[in-house]
Amino acid sequence: MPQVSVRNRLVEHAEDVFRRKGFGGASIQDITQAANVPKGSFYNHFDSKQDLAVEIILRHARTIDLSTLEADGSALERLHEHLIARLEHIRASGIEFGCLLGNFASESITAGERVRAAVHDVLVSWAGSVSVTIAEGQTAGEITTDRPASALAAFLLDWLEGATLRAKIADDHGFLTDEVGIALRALRA
Amino acid sequence: MPQVSVRNRLVEHAEDVFRRKGFGGASIQDITQAANVPKGSFYNHFDSKQDLAVEIILRHARTIDLSTLEADGSALERLHEHLIARLEHIRASGIEFGCLLGNFASESITAGERVRAAVHDVLVSWAGSVSVTIAEGQTAGEITTDRPASALAAFLLDWLEGATLRAKIADDHGFLTDEVGIALRALRA
C-alpha cells in the first residue's frame, strides 16, 4: 500500500508549484522535489499530472470562503466583503502568481479536458453561491432586476479573474480594492 | 543576409501557434513547422522565442481597432461598440483559444520579463485610449465622476480579459454580448 504521507506531501506542495510554473511548466520532478519525495513515488499515487491537477483544483475550491455571502444584511455589502476576502486570499499567496483557477483556465487547451472541466465546474458552482446572494438583493430592491442573478454573478467572477490577471502582470494590487466598488456599481438597482 | 520572406512567414504563423499552445507549450519547432521553414532558420531572424513573442504582442496590439472609440456621439455607445468589436475579433480567431494578451499575461512568470512588460505596455496603452472616451462621457454627464476615467477604463479591460477567459473554458461565447451591457452599467452616471 502506498504511504499516505507521501501522497499528502505531493498534494500539499503541488498547488504552489502549479501556481508558480503553470500546468505546462510544472514537471513531475518539480512537484516531487518541492514535496521532498522520490520522483518515482509520484505514479504510486497519481495516474498523471492531470490527475493531480484535478485534485488540486478541487482542494483549492474549498478555500473559497462562502460564509461572507451567507451572513445577514445588505446583499451588496456581503458581495463586497466576499470579493475582498477572495482578493486577500490571492494576495496572501503572492499576487504575482495570479489565481490558480485563472492560470489553469488559461492553459485549458494544453492541460486537457479533465483540467478544463474541473476549473469550469468550480467556477459554475462558485457563481451559483454568489447568485443566491444577488437574488436576495434583487428581492430586497438593492440590485437591478434588468438581468438574471446568474448573469450578474458570472459577470462579477469574470471581472475578478481579469482583475487578478492584471494585478499579476502589473505586480501591483493597489487598485483591486477600489475596483470591487466599481464592479458592484454594475449591479445597483 | 537572411531572407525577408522566412522572417515574415515566422511572424505570420507564430501568433496562431502561441494562441493555441501558449508561450511555454509552443516550441520553436512548432513555429517553424507552422511557417513551413527549416527549423534552423529561426535563429537567423530571432534571438529567442521571447524575442518573437514580443514582436507578436506588438503586432497583435495593432489589431485593436480604436476607430470606434474616436467616432462622434454618446461615449457609452462608442465604448459598447468598441468592446463588441474586440470580442468579435477574438471570436473570429477561435474563442476556445482565448485572448492572446490574456494567455501571455497568465504565463508572464515563466515567459519572462520582456513578454510580461510587452503585454503590460499594450494593456496600459489600450486603457489610455478607452480612458479618453470615458473622460468625454464624464464631461457630457453620461458617465460617473465618482472614479477617475483611468480607473474605469482599467476596470473595463479587466472585465473583458476575464470574460474572454471564461468563454475559453466554457467554449461558449453566447453570454459575452449581454455582459458588455452589464459591465457598462458600472460606468453610468
UniProtKB/TrEMBL annotation, chains A, B:
Q: Which SUPFAM superfamilies match?
A: Homeodomain-like, Tetracyclin repressor-like, C-terminal domain
HTH tetR-type domain residues are: 4-64
Instruction: Write down the Pfam families for this protein, in alphabetical order.
Output: TetR_C_13, TetR_N
Q: Which domain of life is it from?
A: Bacteria
Q: Does the keyword Repressor apply?
A: no
Q: What is this protein called?
A: TetR family transcriptional regulator
Keywords in alphabetical order: DNA-binding, Transcription, Transcription regulation
Provide the GO MF annotations for this entry. Answer: DNA binding
> DNA binding happens at which residues?
27-46
